[in-house]
Structure of TetR family transcriptional regulator:
Amino acid sequence: MPLPRFERLPADRRESILGAAREQFAAHGAESASYNKIIEAAGISKTAAYHYFDGREDLLAAVLDGVLDRLLAALGPWRPAGDPAEFWARLGEGAAALADHLRRHADDLALADAAIDRAADGPWTGWFDAVVSDGQRLGVVRTDVDRGLLVAATAAVVRAADAWALARMRGGAADAPASELSDGRQLWPLLRGLWASDDGTAAGDGTR
């Protein structure tokens, strides 16, 4: 985590430094971006950098924490649904909000996988744990698979769908409108297949 001297900087200066670092990590990769180039882009000396962060990995962790915070803010907290139809509607709202955020923040999109991987057992997984739990309560999500595995698989499917849809939108695909995630044409079949038990008794909502 950032050192105390960094936390004492004015908020706009902290964001400027983290923003410059985020751009470099997004452009060159979380594992490949040069610490010296990041420092140069941030407009700080190497001495100052080591007063603010305990090296490159500490700075990367701060950047990825910020990315994850914004992804979770876009999703918002999961609220229990009253019935399966409402469950799917809320899931669609969350997927659309996340896709919209990533569409407008290319750096967060580039670093989302690294941020999520770093938070494997943190609040990101907690959001999907709440979704799976609610779905199981409503009979939408199977209960014959280990819960931890099902939560991890659900998070991976949703993230992959986000990245796929946004890549198509950036590429100008004629059949890739902004609603591609929110209307569920691609994501829902994937989740239904993941969440359905062998006898097909889960993953239904009666409306789609």
About this structure: The chain has two domains: 4-64, 65-195. The CA atoms of residues 127 and 180 lie 22 Å apart. The chain is about 65% helix and 0% strand.
